[in-house]
From TrEMBL, chain A:
GO terms for biological process: glycine decarboxylation via glycine cleavage system; protein lipoylation. The keyword Chaperone does not apply. The keyword Cytoplasm does not apply. This is Glycine cleavage system H protein. The glycine cleavage system catalyzes the degradation of glycine. The H protein shuttles the methylamine group of glycine from the P protein to the T protein. Belongs to the GcvH family.
UniProtKB/TrEMBL annotation, chain B:
The glycine cleavage system is composed of four proteins: P, T, L and H. Substrate binds at residue 201. Keywords: Aminotransferase, Transferase. This is Aminomethyltransferase. Residues 9-268 form the GCVT N-terminal domain. InterPro entries: GcvT, GcvT/YgfZ/DmdA, GcvT/YgfZ_C, GcvT_bac, GcvT_C, GCVT_N, TrmE/GcvT-like. One of its GO terms (biological process) is glycine decarboxylation via glycine cleavage system. GO terms for cellular component: cytosol; glycine cleavage complex. It holds the Pfam family GCV_T_C.
Length: 123, 368
């Protein structure tokens, strides 16, 4: 599990971990908690192009539907099949095994720091 | 903006780490741990629900039976002391003001339990409708807490809770109630609920509720009892095919559309509010409530449209991936031509058409 304080965040409750030109993206524990038990995850296919700010996936709980927004322009390198098969990983390990997509990008937009995100969600 | 209200069990919920939701102005627990774990606990063991936000309205006096026969859709005078009945409060136009459970707790005494959001409306309507009769209507909601213990192990747990005394608890029938005590406090114990499982609803003074809550949790822990929130309650009642006010039932819905048509007793003598409208029947082509079952994991949810071929024929009122059955289920209002059991329809799930079949309600029925 990555150190949460070193991750970047979006106001849509996604976390982003950058490694070279690839960003790993998941939803935060705060978002997972708000959603409740995740029972279905729909992710974009590897090879598809995504545009920052657009809805690229869905995360459904027993109670509601959350949308996955692309935090960056780029190409999907990998979607986490383990999460598709076991959606509960989003609840049990949102920053680890519950990651959702890896995106190859050309440039990264400005995202929130850990402190900024924490302030946003009031924690 | 009304003031936020808190259950007498609020501190217990805080201590248990509950998440909260605003429900009709009340801060009520939505979940303690996991919606699914709480749901499964009710199906396999037992769970506790705090329902202290519900409205409890007493109707009492020599003409209480006659008054309720006039005020409500069912024949309340026909139920015996100790019996409960699901009923409807109809508008003059035949719409549903609220769905209620009515307990006859004495010869001239009834307890009407209303949805939290409709408490004031129900109390006001009952006062108005009962005024020509020799009876009193008293809104006791602030003086009554309600704890539900639901699940196949509910009886075994309740029997063992220290301080709970209810004569004949073992033999108490479904939709029956009995007077009991918790310590020094009087308690009404009813074998009713809203989850599709066996279980009990315990009505008692707010000041006694925290100690009873603790005692139930302690006694039931070994049997798998957990506290459960409103999120699991919603998936449980959906599986059990129970309509929810604001979803399946509303002022714009007449009973025959939404399933509780049988609750309306047109055979009972005398007038009751809404009778003329009900006798006239709903408009031709009025949509009817059906159950829908689908495959996969993607659930249709409230307000999603339903299609028969290319025609939009209805709308979902409640839907979820059923935790017990493992596939999506929904209740929907659809055109009568598309309502036959086995009809193949489509749910528009955010732009994707998901095939769904009309099935009978309830989706889940416990084994006797």
């Amino acid at each position: 599990m990555p150190d949460k304080t070193t991750l970047q965040y979006t106001p849509e409750h996604e976390w982003v971990q950058v490694d070279g030109d690839v960003a790993t993206v998941g939803i935060t524990a705060y978002a997972a908690e708000k959603l409740g038990d995740v029972v279905f995850v729909d992710l974009p296919a590897a090879g598809s192009n995504i545009a920052s700010g657009k809805v690229v996936g869905e995360i459904e709980s027993t109670k509601s539907v959350g949308e996955l927004f692309a935090p960056v322009d780029g190409e999907i390198v990998e979607a986490n099949q383990a999460v598709v098969d076991s959606p509960e990983l989003v609840n049990s390990d949102p920053f680890g095994e519950g990651w959702l997509i890896k995106v190859r990008f050309a440039s990264l937009p400005e995202l929130l720091s850990f402190d900024e995100y924490s302030a946003l969600v009031g924690e | 903006m009304t003031e936020e209200r808190f259950s007498p069990l609020h501190q217990r919920h805080l201590d248990a780490g509950a998440s909260f939701t605003d429900f009709a102005g009340w801060m009520m627990p939505v979940r303690y741990s996991s919606d699914l774990a709480e749901h499964h606990a009710v199906r396999t063991a037992a769970a506790l629900f705090d329902l202290s936000h519900m409205g409890e309205i007493l109707v009492l006096g020599p003409e209480a039976s006659d008054a309720l026969d006039y005020a409500l859709a069912g024949k309340l005078s026909a139920i015996a002391i100790g019996q409960a009945k699901y009923s409807l409060l109809l508008s003059r136009e035949g719409g549903i003001v609220d769905d209620l459970v009515v307990y006859r707790t004495g010869e001239d005494r009834y307890l009407v339990v209303a949805n939290a959001s409709n408490r004031e409306a129900v109390a006001a309507e009952l006062r108005d409708r009962c005024s020509p009769f020799a009876c009193d209507v008293q809104d006791e909601s602030d003086d009554i807490a309600l704890i539900a213990v639901q699940g196949p192990r509910a009886l075994e747990i309740l029997t063992e809770v220290p301080g709970v005394r209810v004569d004949g608890l073992d033999d108490l029938g479904y939709y029956r109630s009995a007077h009991g005590h918790y310590g020094e406090h009087a308690m009404l114990v009813a074998r009713t609920g809203y989850t599709g499982e066996d279980g009990f609803e315990l009505y008692l003074a707010p000041e006694a509720a925290p100690a009873l809550w603790d005692a139930l949790l302690e006694t039931g822990a070994g049997a798998g009892l957990v506290p459960a929130g409103l999120a699991s309650r919603d998936t449980l009642r959906l599986e059990a095919g129970m309509p929810l006010y604001g979803h399946e039932l509303s002022l714009d819905t007449v009973p025959s559309q939404a399933g509780p048509g049988r609750v309306v007793n047109l055979k009972k003598e005398g007038d009751f509010v809404g009778r003329a409208a009900i006798e006239a029947g709903p408009d031709d082509g009025a949509r009817v409530l059906v159950g829908l079952a689908a495959e996969g994991k993607r659930a249709g949810r409230a307000d999603y449209p339903v299609f028969d071929g290319e025609d939009e024929v209805g709308i979902i009122t409640s839907g979820a991936l059923s935790p017990t059955l493992g596939h999506p289920i929904a209740m929907a209002f659809v055109a009568p031509d598309s309502a036959d059991l086995g009809t193949e329809l489509f749910i528009d799930v955010r732009g994707t058409r998901i095939p769904a079949t009309v099935v009978s309600l309830p989706f889940y029925k416990r084994k006797a």
